Write the structure tokens for this entry.
Amino acid sequence: MSISIYDARLLLTGLLTTLALAVVGCGAGFLCGFAVAICRTTRAHGMAPLRAALYGYCLLFRRVPFLVTLFLVFFVSQSVNADLPTFAVALLTLCLIATAYLSEIIRGGLESVHSGQWQAARALNFSYWQALRYVIVPQAWRVIVPPAVGFFVMFIKDTALASQIGVMELTSAGKVLGNKGLPSMLVYGMILLLYFVISYPLTRLGKHAERKLAVTRNR
Amino acid sequence: MPLLEIVDLKASFGSHAVLEDFSMSVDEGAIVSLIGPSGSGKSTLLRVLMGLLPIDRGSVRMNGRVVDYADKAALHALRAEIAIVFQQYNLFQNMTVIDNVMITPTRIRRWPRKDVERHAMQLLTRVGLADRLRAYPDELSGGQQQRVAIARALALKPKILFLDEITAALDPELVGEVLETIRELSSDGITMLIVSHEMGFVRKLSSKVVFMAQGRIVETGTPQQIFDAPLEARTRDFVGKILRH
């Protein structure tokens, strides 16, 4: 039995779905993670309740298994009759998790910048945002990028869990093709290759970013 | 009228008072030095004046106007008139020498770039670093970094320059070049408030020396008075110890 056009299309759909989950999850997770990290580095009293809430969120979602979060979002969305497609449920879950992890990585980066840099910026009349933009964030990149790329690579693999709630992503597509009677070795061999094709360029990109950011010194 | 006037200032870390009953003034063009044992509150005073640490009581006047540290606009206006050079230089590590000097005038003050650049070049030439414009701070020696920090402070055309133990973190052989830079600047008549342990430097340069201990002023006078004929036993003790080695 050979691979039909239909099979190839299923595989392609799976690939694109996995890609969409990974890209949107990483992208939204990074942006939201940045916002969370910045909120958590503020010192203003008015921000204290928000800081506490975000602390609780990060604390919780980094300790719950991915699958549990996925089911949680799935059943919550069902119980409130949100009627979300499973793809949206998976995407929402991925964003929740990526934000929690990445915000910790980014916060670590921001806090790695020596306090003297903040002090100098304040003494020179930089506002909080100006200090972040011109001084703190540029120095934090070097500390943020390597673990963030590591997280992305891990995260791409974890999108396979979306198959558990019936999202037709790469792993699901493999399962379907296997059930149809295609040789499992061939099917999962291709799946493996496709995951590699998605994640390897990211690693290269990460290395490139690290090299570029190496001029941004830090002590 | 003094440029900077401090009246009955009190500041504390928690319940521990680090400055108390502190009153002094700095006249325009004067070079005032604060000396005293470690932990006497010298650096704290500079930080309090910059609004980096809170005040419990007392007042600070700049140009005759009382500074309201709770008011953001007033704090901004104050920091626009004071520039500080830190013991640890605190140059922005992600910027080259020239960017360190130019960022605040161009990005924060929004002064015209051309003028800022000309002034920055003048200053860097003056501190002897015109050939290191594109270097990053960690490619420079401590003494060079501190000279860049001095140029960065002066690029803001401050009314008063604070020097916070600017040679304390330097290797002994680099102290001279930084002090020489300050000595050279002092001939411009720029007002300075200096915290230093370099007694020879303080003695030669200062118009007024304030000796403090445990957050209070013990004695104020000319360098001659403080170093040669101190009135207080505490001052005599400190100066004697310092000059003995």
Summary: The two ends of chain B are 39 Å apart (CA to CA). Chain B touches chain A at residues 50, 52, 76, 79-80, 83-84, 86, 88, 90-94, 103-104, 107-109, 136-138, 152, 156 (CB under 8 Å). The longest helix of chain B spans residues 172-186.
